């Protein structure tokens, strides 16, 4: 059960159905209440009209026995005096409730009761109605009191809405006319509305559930295809495959495109990793094989040991291992420290340890980062410049707005424009004829650019004023520099 309702399709269907069911139930309840109120109001209006018609006859002095509203009408009418005694009623009235008295036939006055009423003016327990409205002889009261009850007329029992109206006869007698308006139409309409709601709400809710289930299923069908394809890619480890992209412009289509972009980036990263491992293995094989050969020769013929060559191969192997370790740390996302480093001082320090390198102009430029990694960038750039320069490598440090710019220029042949991005790839050497001893493993510039990126900067190459290559390292200045 939890698996079914754990799906987006089931949750959307359930949510939509509940919302529609609640909305329909609320609207239906409001409709029934409004319909009931309107019909009760209409019954009250009819009752008031009947009561005022009888009151008008009484106000005109018509005798109780000659009133037209009492001659067999199917609506209950009572006329009650101010003492609560029934004076007249509908001829066929058999039972009544909801008015000030349940009598259906007038009773003669009880003198003893009249005496008791005179002794206790505050006793209102006999059902008399006191509107508090002062009337003149022949005047009908404006106030109307409504109540609900029932009545039986000629054997038929129904519910009624009663209206009570006061009237003062020309003889000065204060009477109250109770007339009823039938509520049968209200009961019938409310029953019909309730039946319609009890049938219609489940039917409409079921229809909404079915439509929502079909629509969400159709909308989520591409998601199922994406999931199946991703599962297949995971099982096969074939990153060249892509998920299907629907021909729509909705969120699912954007999800598919983003997924394919992620797969493409992952494929490229895996391919770079494979090339890196292959190139690293190839680069390591050469110094290891050379060192092994020299050791085997030395073991067989000690006098032929090339100690300088063995040391040189060991140093090359050590440098290559250090480069590979640094690249691995950079690829793992290692963040540099937040130490302050003065690029001008660092440039003078690194340039002073090399021949053929001059610092032409510098100004203080502090940046935040790892001094060791930034020194490694400068070392790699200077070593690259010395390999390609004819005579001199020039270092400059300057400020450019919020950036510190370190430039390393040589007077060599420069870098062709088409290769200015390629030289930053790992294990790339533009001069295929150059030996590994002279040209290195092709990791220096790749390491330098990765370090620059980790420090929030950039490393680019252009043309130097002397015609050679100009490498520019741009790093953000420290906050309060």
Shape: rod-shaped
What count of domains describes the coordinates? 3
* Approximate helicity band: 40-55%
CA radius of gyration is 52 Å
Largest sheet: 6 strands, antiparallel
Helix-strand pattern: HHEEEHEEEHHHEHEEHEEHHEE
Largest beta sheet: strand ordering:
2-1-6-5-4-3
- Based on helices, strands and strand pairing, what is the structural class? alpha+beta
Distance between the termini: 63 Å
Helical run tally? 10
Number of strands: 13
Beta percentage is 15-25%
Mean pLDDT comes to 83
Report the uncertain regions. 117-125, 432-439
Description:
It contains 10 helices and 13 strands. The chain has 481 residues and is an alpha+beta fold. The protein folds into 3 domains: 1-236, no CATH class; 251-331, Signal transduction histidine kinase, dimerisation/phosphotransfer (DHp) domain (Helix Hairpins), CATH 1.10.287; 339-476, Heat Shock Protein 90, CATH 3.30.565. Strand 5 (156-168) and strand 6 (174-182) form a beta hairpin. The radius of gyration is 52 Å and the shape is rod-shaped.
């Amino acid at each position: 059960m939890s698996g079914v309702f754990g799906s987006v399709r089931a949750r959307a269907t359930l949510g939509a159905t509940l919302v529609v069911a609640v909305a329909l139930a609320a609207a239906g309840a409001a409709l029934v209440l409004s319909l009931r109120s309107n019909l009760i109001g209409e019954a009250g209006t009819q009752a008031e009209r009947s009561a005022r018609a009888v009151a008008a006859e009484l106000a005109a002095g018509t005798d109780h026995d000659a009133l037209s509203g009492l001659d067999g009408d199917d609506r209950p009418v009572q006329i009650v005096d101010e003492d609560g005694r029934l004076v007249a009623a509908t001829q066929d009235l058999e039972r009544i409730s909801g008015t000030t008295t349940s009598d259906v036939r007038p009773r003669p006055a009880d003198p003893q009761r009249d005496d008791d009423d005179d002794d206790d003016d505050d006793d209102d327990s006999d059902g008399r109605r006191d509107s508090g409205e002062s009337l003149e002889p022949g005047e009908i009261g404006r106030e109307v009191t409504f109540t609900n009850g029932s009545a039986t007329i000629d054997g038929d029992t129904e519910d009624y809405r009663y209206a009570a109206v006061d009237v003062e006869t020309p003889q000065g007698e204060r009477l109250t006319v109770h007339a009823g308006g039938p509520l049968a139409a209200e009961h019938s309409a409310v029953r019909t509305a309730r039946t319609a709601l009890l049938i219609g709400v489940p039917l409409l809710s079921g229809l909404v559930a079915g439509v929502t289930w079909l629509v969400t299923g159709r909308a989520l069908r591409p998601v199922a295809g994406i999931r199946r394809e991703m599962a297949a890619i995971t099982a096969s480890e074939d990153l060249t495959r892509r998920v299907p992209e629907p021909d729509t412009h909705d969120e699912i289509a954007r999800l598919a495109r983003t997924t394919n972009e992620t797969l493409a980036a992952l494929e490229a990263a895996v391919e770079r990793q494979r090339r890196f491992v292959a190139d690293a293995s190839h680069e390591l094989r050469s110094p290891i094989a050379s060192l092994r050969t020299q050791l085997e020769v030395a073991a067989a013929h000690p006098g032929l040991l090339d100690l300088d060559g063995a040391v040189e191969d060991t140093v090359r192997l050590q440098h290559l291992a250090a480069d590979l370790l640094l690249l691995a740390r950079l690829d793992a996302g290692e963040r540099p420290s937040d130490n302050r480093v003065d690029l001008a001082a660092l440039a003078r320090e690194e340039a002073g340890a090399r021949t053929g390198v001059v610092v032409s102009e510098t100004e203080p430029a502090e940046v935040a980062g790892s001094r060791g990694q930034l020194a490694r960038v400068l070392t790699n750039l200077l070593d690259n410049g010395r390999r390609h320069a004819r005579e001199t490598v020039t270092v400059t440090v300057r400020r450019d707005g919020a950036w510190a710019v370190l430039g390393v220029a040589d007077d060599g042949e420069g870098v062709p424009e088409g290769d200015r991005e390629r030289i930053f790839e790992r294990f790339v050497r533009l001069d295929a004829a150059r030996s590994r001893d002279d040209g290195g493993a092709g990791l220096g510039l790749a390491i330098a650019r990765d370090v620059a990126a980790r420090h929030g900067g950039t490393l680019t190459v252009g043309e130097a004023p002397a015609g050679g290559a100009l490498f520019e390292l741009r790093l953000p200045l420290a906050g309060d520099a």
